[in-house]
Amino acid sequence: MAGPLEGLKVIELAHIMAGPVCGLMLADMGADVIKVEKVPGGDDTRRFSQPKIGGESAAFMMMNRNKRGIAVDLKQDGGREVLHRLLKTADVVIENYRRGTMERLGFGYETLRAGNPGLIYCEISGFGRSGPYADRGGFDLIAQGMSGLMSITGEGEGRPPVKIGAPVTDITAGILGAMGVLAAVIERHKSGRGQRVDTSLFEAGIVHTYWQSAIAFATGISPGPMGSAHPLSAPYQAFRTADGWINIGAANQNNWLRLLDVIGKQELNDDPRFADNGARMNNLQDLEQALNAAFAPRTTADWLARLEAAGVPAGPVLSVSEMHRDPQTIARAMAPAPEHARLGPVKAIGLPVKFSETPGEVADGAPLYGQHTREVLAEYGYTVQETDALVKQGAVITAEGP
Known about the structure:
alpha/beta; Rossmann fold; seven-stranded mixed sheet; three-stranded antiparallel sheet; 17 helices; 14 strands; elongated
């Protein structure tokens, strides 16, 4: 794969989601990402509950396509020696264990940088490697609550707390980790030095509160949940139609006036409650009531055609499967089907960044447990006999073909 990161050697010592997201972003852009799975069992997502495809975990395959996989027992001397050899020439290592785990195994940053001063060491944790919570484990649900996200998500005040449906802090932490790695690669080109890259689920949640934090900093009042509405602009939310819901982004005055023309409610512009954005925000419930009544007689598809013709930003509320089938999803290669070694083509999510000269690609399915152990060890100087001995000891596990 000739992506923009071709030639970058990445060792992924990560599991579940945040670290693997970082690895898959780098892999999709052309890096050679070698996923080191634990013995026994491998990445915990291999044992996630249904669904499975042909006996393979759908969750594992989603997070680990485009990577090569080896299985190594780091509790054994032979397994630790394998990892040491890989890390001597690695450009990047990704890990998302609790603080101190890597140091106890002999793979802490200070130890590794002594033999590989150009190494970029990416740590993704629950709360970061400093501060009073550095030793805590981290989960997306906990991070969403503590970052303020759950206080602004849901239908309104007085309702039970609601988390964002996607594990947004896991995913965002992985993307932030990849961004940090790329910045460190640029710095290494200038200075020759590697460095630690440290981010967390907690910080990944905090960065999603930009608008609400701006309000809280300015007023001293923390905003609460508003359903699909925006805390600063209106109308900017979902409205009910005859057969479902439609999202309307008519927050600026020009789009507001266009919207009124489409729905045939020009008289609302003469209502002082809706005269400008400030007035609409102050009377948001009244605005919602008026617009829900206006949208109710027609279907979502009918309204979308009328709004698009008038240049008013709008869109349907799609299910995940509907999104997969949407022509824009397909046109942007966001639902590819890389080839799995045993199952054939398996659908995945594509690379969300496009490059004109060095395009990335989701080319390979997720590895079988230990699928590339022999291949990788051979590349790093192990003979067949030496690999066989490691297999016999249980220091590594191999998958002998599909």
